[in-house]
C-alpha cells in the first residue's frame, strides 16, 4: 500500500494536504471552515464592504469575519481595497484564485442544498433508531 507522500509524488504535486506539516492543510481549513466557505461564496456575487458581507453571511460575528478575511487575504483568495476617505471605505473581492475556489465550493453548496431532503430524512432515521431528539 502506497503512503500519502508516495501518492502525492506520483501525481506530480509538491504538496500533500494529508501531511501534518504541509502548508496546504491550513489553506484547506480556511476555505472549508464554516465562515471561510460562506465568505468566499458570498464574495463570488461581487465586491462587498465589510458590513454588507457580514449581513450576507448571517450569524458571523464581526471578530470572526475579520479573522476570516485576514486569513483568506493572506492565502491570496481575497483582495482588500482600502479607500482613503473619511470615514475609511474598505471593499473586499475575490482574486482570480479566490474565484476558482469559490466556484468549486458553490458546486458543493448546490449539491448539499439540492439533497437536503435526503439528509433530513437520514437524520430522522438516525435519531429514531437511537431514541434521540
From TrEMBL:
Keywords: DNA-binding, Transcription, Transcription regulation
Top-level taxonomy: Bacteria, Bacillati, Actinomycetota, Actinomycetes, Kitasatosporales
Keyword ATP-binding: no
The name this protein goes by in its record: Helix-turn-helix transcriptional regulator
Domain (HTH hxlR-type) ranges: 22-120
Organism: Streptomyces spinosisporus
SUPFAM superfamilies: Winged helix' DNA-binding domain (SSF46785)
